[in-house]
Amino acid sequence: MGVGLIRSALSLGALSIAVASAWCVTGCNCDPGKDPQAAEEGGARGEGGTTPVASGGGEGGFAAGFSVGGGDSGSCYDDPGAEVVCVPGESADCYDGVPGTLDVGLCHSGLSHCNHYGAGWVACQDELLPRPDDCTNPTEWICDGMPVTCNALESVEFANGHALAAVADDSGGSRRVYRSYDSFHVERLDPMNTPLWALDVPVTSSDQFPYVVAAGEEDSTIIAGVVDGTMELGGSEEQGTFAFLIKLDATGQPIWWRKIDVPLVDNFAAVSVYAMATDAAGNIWVAGALDGTLTVDDATLTTSQNAFVLRADPDGTARWIASPEDKPGSAWFLSVAIDGDGNVYAGGVDNSTPPWSCNGTEATLVSFDPNGALRWSRESSGKLVDASVSSIVIDTSGVYTTGIINVDTSTAIDLGGGPIGGTDYVAKYSLDGEHLWSHGSTDSETNWLTGGHLALDPQGRLLWGTSGYNYHVRVYGADGQLLWDRAIETGTKVDDQGNAAIFVDCSLSSTTILSDGRVVLAGCAQKWVDFGGGHLASPDGGQGYFATLSP
What we know:
With 551 residues, the protein is mainly beta. It folds into two domains: 1-130, no CATH class; 154-549, TolB, C-terminal domain (Neuraminidase, 6 Propeller). The protein has two helices and 38 strands. It has helices spanning 37-41, 356-359, and strands at residues 6-7, 91-94, 110-113, 154-159, 161-168, 174-180, 183-189, 195-205, 211-215, 221-233, 236-248, 254-261, 264-265, 268-269, 271-278, 284-296, 299-312, 318-322, 331-338, 344-350, 360-368, 374-379, 385-386, 391-395, 398-404, 412-414, 419-421, 424-429, 435-441, 453-456, 462-465, 471-476, 482-490, 508-513, 519-525, 528-530, 535-537, 543-549. It is globular.
């Protein structure tokens, strides 16, 4: 422990404490006028502390300057003629935490002031200090740069499946969706992770399309996706190749569901759904990729291998479908978010820069106004990269994005602030599209579809789950300062020659933060996953998981 006082602008020059007696300060049980020797009789002086407070008692000695150790004081002596060490009433910042934790995470200094005679400093007030790691009662004051080093507070593992997403709701609980080979499963949990309801939707599809979920108004749940085969819901079965949009009430019962005809290319669906967002009024935005003409109610869009966003009312009626400018090559949106004014922000992949076989893809970020008109667009620059925007979150300070740079760490992209290298990145833009900051990482193997995943916690900090098979969970401040970083290790299957057999869709698939700050991760492990407390075993068929971590 070291001296933690941070002096204000007012100073007294070369001052020192006289160690012949202990000073009486506010809050000390003292008897003014008692002989100073009484303080020494209370016990030897304590080991040097970190607040500007003088007291007797305890084994040790005075700390340098104006800080002394603690201990049980027998008495103290307020002597008007004592040596002055500070100006009465003077204020100063102070901090009792371990050196190196000040202004890390949520920990910050407090305030102390000089006592009546200028003989010492009172105890530090209103400081926030680190607390010990406690997995049974996790703390949100993580101020050593590292999260709690224990296993997940709660985890759910299931064989032959993939956890697709977990999303927080306004009640402090969450929604979860995962798929298996013959169905997808949706459930709602309360803040204690107790299931409130669960719904299994049988699906037989020739392709494993992603499904997306969002929390709607009045505790409703919205689900969207594409099926090439059959799907059962509410006692009826639909067949063919189609997109769907489902709304469930607070108890998990269907309010409505829509089957949406989609264009076909070579008998396969020419529409993919990768992301969805909702607002407090229950409006719905779905984002993905389209090749051909999509018509939903009075909204129609014709485009060639391009990204799209569909806006629907709370009852599922489509308002508009919009896309970026048609260009050669192809583009698709992997993420979508809405600001408080109804503006739309969508991010994904664009490989329209020729020659398409050489230049790879660019990360694209596009904003539409509430009526679907294009506001602005931003694209990364760089050669021989496979860049993307895989996740977007928004607050009043700006737009946060993450995505892929490239699988080759020797390459770099420019998002507007200069070249950054690595396998993936996190960046922040203003709501008008101005680049504010960006960071790259080199965590592990990656691909554009898994990408990274973002969430914002109740204090406005950014949670970044990077992509790859051994990935990291990092937390940044709004200014881009790294607050903590934790590695999550997973086992990788190998082929007969001992080479890693990588499953491109088996990785972290979403991150979210509950209202109390707990972190929920969803994804798939090929063999095992370790959240800090040992391996969670996985069957040969792969393992989906949801894991809840402390703040």
